[in-house]
Amino acid sequence: MQKVYDTVPDEKKFLFSRLAHERHVDVPVDGDKFFNRHLAIVGSTGSGKSHAMARIIQTATSMRDVRHGDYKLNNTHIVIFDIHCEYQTAFPDANFLDVHQLTLPFWLLNSEELQDLLIESSEEQSHNQVAVLKRAVTDSRKAHFDGEDRLKERIHYDSPLRFDFEDVLTAVRDKNEEMIDGARGPKQGQLHGKLDNFLTRLENRFHDRRLDFLMGKRAKETSLEETLRQFTGYTNDSASNVTVIDLSGVPFEVLSITVSLISRLLFDYAYYYKKTHPDMRTDTPLLVVYEEAHKYVPKGGAAKYNAARTAIERIAKEGRKYGITAAIVSQRPAEISETIFSQCSNFLAMRLTNPEDQNYVKRLIPDSLGPLTQALPMLSSGEALLIGDAAVMPSLVRLEEAAPVPSSSDVRYLQEWVRPWHDVLFPPIVADWEH
Q1: What is the pLDDT of residue 181?
Q2: Which of 86, 88, 140, 311 could bridge to 263 as Cys pair (CB 3.0-4.6 Å)?
Q3: 3-state secondary structure labels for all residues of the chain
Q4: Nearest to 36 by CA among 352, 325, 426, 396
Q5: pLDDT tens digits for range 125-167
């Protein structure tokens, strides 16, 4: 059996698992095919998805393997969207960005992201709000452009140039209070008093301290290069193979926009990197891990998910050409955009209890291998069905334990409940909450 799996060439072997029922048999995959084509890890909560992803990344950054020797992959570039702050313990040396370290300039938002952030599409005046916002943002970009005058005319709504949010507030306020000349003297403008809700929403966003990483002073003053460096591990004082973006402190109403903007910046970075190199090589391939992907790229859903869906679908459809690969991690594969999952060539299917999710995985493998999927609702934590182009054949495997482990283990209810009564210090909890 080991000889069957050892048909993977030695220089391409990537090992993170063994056969579930024959623990002495290694199950390597073709590393190039595994990372060059998008990966999906699916499984119900508690099945071990985060541990599996952590083990794969740890292997990719250290390649600790007693059978094939130890060597380090020095040029690994991995970005993790961490929804529940689980990966910091698994990667203590990673470039860690939470809402206090993350800097995401609002002026890099494109038109769709700006409108998702600032426009309520159900309001009666939403079409007028869009028109006013477009004019205000474009005018502010032109006002802060210090290049040649002939180039200023080319600036548009989506130009990746600085604008000042206070300029936008002033423009909307002026439009809401506009008076124009009439036959009998000054009269109210067409939108006079009709932008009150819009103005209130803009002011709330601007003064919301939870959005400092996006709307605050440091976001206003940072450069595009500094923004790219923090996500790709090229920080000024050191280099890091893994960047963990902790989104647990990001308000839910801007979670999708945050993921959208970072994904779009990473894709554009990969695109322009390849474009500006004469030999057209990609020397710094990226792996982008989307934890709990069903939260921001659902199959259907409200318009607020459009920007994130578009950005991640673009990586799924075109990323391979530019050296950027997506790893989709989700407990509900049936709820994720089909466009994204249809581009995944490698799957780790862990325990799935929902029939819709089980059927989704069953459609991925040949009918002759159907009996393998019957074990999906009964798999133990850490076991998975490995399917895809990188695998020698579909196999039921057990993943090696991550070391160190992510902080996603189950709470030990009985062990905690049996302890003596524990007094909670409420003041620090409330202080942090209010802050």
Answers
A1: 83
A2: 311
A3: CHHHHCCCCHHHEECCEEECCCCCCECCEEHHHHHHCEEEEECCCCCCHHHHHHHHHHHHHHCCCCCCCCCCCCCCCEEEEECCCCCCCCCCCCEEECCCCCCCCHHHCCHHHHHHHHCCCCCCCHHHHHHHHHHHHHHHHHHCCCCCHHHHCCCCCCCCCCCCHHHHHHHHHHHHCCEEEECCEEEECCCCCCCHHHHHHHHHHHHCHHHHHHHCHHHHHCCHHHHHHHHHCECCCCECCEEEEECCCCCHHHHHHHHHHHHHHHHHHHHHHHHHCCCCCCCCCEEEEECCHHHCCECCCCHHHHHHHHHHHHHHHHHHHHCEEEEEEECCHHHECHHHHHCEEEEEECCCCCHHHHHHHHCCCCHHHHHHHHHHHHCCCCEEEEEECCCCCCEEEEECCCCCCCCCCCCCHHHHHCCCCCCCCHHHHHHHHHC
A4: 325
A5: 889 999 999 999 999 999 999 888 888 889 999 998 999 999 9
Residues 218 and 121: their CA atoms lie apart, in Å, by: 29
For residue range 369-384, what is the model confidence (pLDDT) as tens digits? 667 777 788 888 889 9
* Backbone Cα Rg of the chain: 25
Phi, psi (deg, nearest 5) at residue 66 = -65, -25
Quick one: tokens of 265? Answer: 């910046």
One-letter amino acid for residue 177 of the chain:
E
Q: In whole angstroms, give the CA distance from residue 387 to residue 394.
A: 5
Q: Which two tokens stand for residue 38?
A: 């998008």
Identity (one letter) of the amino acid at 249?
G
Q: Helices 165-176 & 126-143, crossing angle to 10 degrees?
A: 130
Sequence-separated contacts (24+) of 380-384 with Cβ below 8 Å:
380/351, 381/46, 381/47, 381/48, 381/51, 381/351, 382/48, 382/51, 382/52, 383/20, 383/48, 383/350, 383/351, 384/17, 384/41, 384/43, 384/48, 384/52, 384/348, 384/349, 384/350
